[in-house]
Amino acid sequence: MLFKKRRKKANKKTAVFNKNFSLSKQNIFLLITCQFVNLLTLSFELSWWMLSIIAICLGWQLSIVKKLTQKPNKVLIAILSITGCILLALTSQALGLLSTMLHLLCLSYVLKSFELNKRSDFYQMILLGLFVLIASLIFQQSLYFAIIISLIIIFNFTLIIGYFAPSKKYSANLNMAAKVFLQSAPLAICLFFVFPKLAPLWAVPTAKSAKTGLSDSVKVGDIANLALSDELAFRIKFDNQVPAYSQMYWRTIVMERFDGQSWETGLGGIFNDRLGNHSGRNVVYQYDFDEDKTMGKQFDYQVITSPTYQNWLYALDLARVDTTRTQSNEIYHRQDYSLYNKKPITQNTSYYVTSYVDMPLAIDINDYSYERNLDIPESSNPRLVEKAQGLRAKYTNDEQGNAALIQEVLTTFNQDVYRYTLNPPRLDNNSLDQFYFETKAGFCEHFASSFTFLMRAAGIPSRLVTGYMGGEYNAQGSYFSVYQRDAHAWSEVWLKDKGWVRVDPTAAINPERVESGFSEQLLREQAASSNEAFSLLRYSNNNAFINAIRLQLAALDYNWTRWVVGYTAEKQNQFLAQLALAFKSLKDIEFITVVKNALLLIGALILWWVVRQINAARQPRSNTHFYQLVVLKLSKQGIDKPLAMTPKDFVLVIKKELPEIAFEFAKFSQLYSSLEYQALDYKQKITTTKAFKQSYKRIQGKL
In this structure, what DSSP letter does residue 306 have? Predict the structure, then answer.
């Protein structure tokens, strides 16, 4: 019975508590603004129909605030909810599990704003908003995006503070929110570095976001379109030696099938694992990676890729993943010497590679691979086939003859009227005949495709390789940045006793592209053709000051990606181990003892701070409280104030007993009386309260 009575009493208090819930007009506008900003961070991941529902709900809320319409009833809210759920069910397969969950979260967030009837509803709104913000970090982890998210979190904190202090100005609430955020930052940083990074209980499902970068199917003209983008593809940091620009061919995808219009990989899922165990009918490497074996010149480097939602990785030839430093165990070597990740790259991914640039690729080739790289579609590009047959009749089918044949094709590209451009004429059905004999203007894939086709038609096994060429060096961080505009295509021909040999027709057409990057002509074409509204990279091409700022910002983001985003459990263990060695070398004491004492000290300080805050919260902070504290101190000095005596009469007593503080006490008493007994407006109350507290501090200092 006693328990039931207490529960009824608590329910009555809760009813009164919820009945008194209300938001000021300023806070309602702030809430709508918070919703808009929070959802904006996920706008690129939401479908058009979800964005439409969000726009309708936010517009409806604004019209309610301005009293243009009434609040929707439960039936309308139910209709919106059911409609959203039906659309989610219909599109869930196309969206993927992760995107479907995010859509459901955003739908709940916008609809919940129509049900702010209790304080708990308001708290749920705040939590949903914070969940939306944190979810956006799944898709973007750059330093500058993290700063934007931090500012938006402060903005959300301002909404909470504004609810509990509706009379305060927005600037004051914003200032307090920023202070709370900054005060919590040291503890968050400490926990980030030392709190154990436990494996998640479940894996985050892969998002079906739009794929970026190179594709495993390439038509003539695709890479020219990709070269219009200034989006970052990946970064590289070399350990010691750095290759020349003309050696930076970042192998990505090897194309061995041609259907007359497009090139495809055609390798299925044939890999060898990172330990060298082979699977599939073809051996991937013909070499045993023996540490004691001389393998020629090598480059050691780290690659940090940007999210592409594809599986391809980047490396120089001949690449070997450094298993001692690479923490991922999902990177494989493909049969065609490219690197492949088991799962799509959905976030910044780091791996270490050693490349042996002098090693030949596949000196021995099996019959299946040999025939596959000679295959051309029937009745495809007959003029090129006729050209290849003429070349084959001119040169013998041996090492010297094949070398001479290749050189003649490259000489033709160099001496004829061929033109290297990002804006080539349109080709009918991607016809290589039309390009080679008529338009004679194209980008790297035009020349590489026609060259590869010619070689196959002439009886020389060849294939198309797509990847990236070169890289921009950033002296601020000593690393290279490779952008989508650096996408490139070249050919590989198989020659006896040499294996797969790289042949880049672009070097014959536009040597500057291979030796130093885009020429001034290509940069102008890119600027004129690109649809990107703003690109700092493009504006910095002819401005040294802007370029220096851009490189500095890029270096900051690179270090953020390397040390913060890439701070894994393994790196944490290494950090703690180094910290242990540092402590042991500093003093001859056990590291565990130091850690225990440090944790005890930190725990004691946190406990002291919490208790202090609780005690401070329990103490009344009214004006009378401060006045009584002064009276109590005066009582300890033998000057008592009778309960019936007014503050004005007590001033006369102080003037007689303690004349040295009489003036200040008179001012203090006057301010107290004004706050307690006079009707002051908001500004007067703020000013008087501030003066009252300052007077209180001065009196405390004199007593």
Answer: P
